[in-house]
Amino acid sequence: MTIWKHGNYAFKEPSFQDGDTVEDGNYCQLQPNTEICKNIKNIIINGGNFVNVKPQSAWTINGGNWVQKEFCTHQHPNFINRGLTPCAENCSHRQGENKQWVDIDEKEYIQIKEEELKANTLVSSVKIEKTVDLNEITQQKFQKEIYIYEDIVIKKGSSVKKALLSAQITESN
Ligand SMILES: [Zn+2]
Q1: SS3 at position 148
Q2: One domain for residues 74 and 142
Q3: Ligand 1 geometric centre to CA of 99 (Å)
């Protein structure tokens, strides 16, 4: 009987066993309604990050974050390595036509700049911001202009919990 208090098990299957209690920790999954630990029936969940984990009616859920959301890879480029399909530029997560400047590293700046030079792009989507600090040292920041994207929340945590509670009540009837 393990008490899970911390640890990062995001995007993988935690090794919960029957009789365990979860107090905290990260169990976030890439896609909404992902099933984890299908064969575990007897666990108590009091807290933790369960974003995109499908709550099972056999579990006793007293807390935790159960939001179900569609992640946008423009917001989370590192999730592509985890297996999330890269979004198109005009994906459903895009918030209109407005753009914003975000920081990038020098390597990405050079790469984009080279591609733009090759393509003879008229308006660059990257820039260098120079600032002079108190010691008269010039700092430079690399930025690119991108559309604004947001993850789509499919279900808020409270509604997921409510649905689960009603499922538990129905089952026990
Ligand atoms: Zn997207």
Answers
A1: strand
A2: no
A3: 14
User: Are both 37 and 101 inside the same structural domain?
Assistant: no
Q: What is the pLDDT along the chain (173 residues), one digit of tens a residue?
A: 899 999 999 999 999 999 999 999 999 999 999 999 999 999 999 999 999 999 998 999 999 999 999 999 998 989 999 999 999 999 999 999 999 999 999 999 999 999 999 999 888 999 999 989 888 999 999 999 999 999 999 988 776 766 666 666 555 44
Are 167 and 121 contained in the same domain?
Answer: no
Q: Are residues 120 and 173 in the same domain?
A: no
Pair (65, 103) in one structural domain: no
Alpha carbon of 91 to ligand 1 centroid (Å): 5
Q: 24 C-alpha vs ligand 1 centroid, how far in Å?
A: 29
State in Å: Cα 112 to ligand 1 middle.
Answer: 20
Strands (E), the chain: 3-4, 21-22, 44-45, 60-61, 68-70, 94-104, 126-132, 138-149, 152-155
Examine the domain organization and report whether 125 and 83 are in the same domain.
no
CA of 159 to the centre of ligand 1 (A): 24
| Phi, psi angles (nearest 5°) of residue 170 | -60, -45
Number of structural domains in the chain: 2
What's the alpha-carbon Rg for the chain, to the nearest Å? 22
Same domain, 145 and 160: no
Is this prediction's pTM over 0.85?
no
